Amino acid sequence: xxxxxxxxxxxxxxxxxxxGKLANQLWNxxxxxxxCLEKGYELKNYCFYEYGRFFSIPVGNTLVNWLxxxxxxxxxxLLPKRQSHYWRQRTSEASAFIGDSVYSYTFVWPxxxxxxxxxxxxYPHVHYLPPxxxxxxxxxxxxxxxxxxxxxxxxxxxxxxxxQKYRQNILSYFQPVDRVQxxxxxxxxxxxxxxxxxxxxxxxxxxxxxxxAGRYYVSPQETAIFARxxxxxxxxxxxxxxFVICSDEDVNLQCFGDLNVVHHYGNVIxxxxxxxxxxxxxxxxxSYGALASWYGNIPxxxxxxxxxxxxxxxxxxxxxxxxxxxxVHF
Length: 330
Hints:
11 strands; five-stranded parallel β-sheet; alpha/beta; Rossmann fold; 14% strand
């Protein structure tokens, strides 16, 4: 890509994600990265400290790296260690809250005061970036002025056209570190040696039981029913198909009866890439399952309390913007 003289002067800094979890942070991060590829800008994400150790993405600022990225594991060490999958998830959320509080008060707040005129807001509405949409007036003004840095604040920067146009660049840039890739590949390779078809199953439990009065919560028992329906509609042989379950809580596999099932007890990063390595995802209505679908370029079948519209999915074999994935901002 040939960069203009003006583009050489520009840095995009993602200043704040508004306490978003992994999937919404990555949707935001990848969309901004596609924008920077389109414009020839440099990108730095100063608020990716919770997950930075799982990727080989440069921080771009030594002080920010030492103050927030390097110290984040310390916050985890302050919390009691529990053995169950449920408590590991809760510990991660608690340490993220501590890290976010420190970062927002010591860095975001001062930067907002100092660089107020150079901050672009990515909330409460979706802010589409080039090449999906021409730059909005305020962003265009900052692109054209002599200032070196533009700050993105918010979790709703999106760039679906850019994600498609620069897919291979994004996949390369946002690959997990070698140790994570190796464990995911080993796990998937073992299953591939025994089964022809792998179906990722994402069951979001902890917060979905209460969120929107449980509207999006689908229990393991209901998931088992949908798994059997999947075999029926896809015409996949039960003996050659394995359902790979990823969840934020432990799942009692007995409710799946004689289906081939395995529970992947990984962290949020490993689960994401395990799901992406399957042939299709049967999942909760969430941005996490949608992101795994994008990574793997595989369909994401949404489990709803009222049932699954199987006709909608019969010709879907790759990633697509799913109309039933209503909690996702594409």
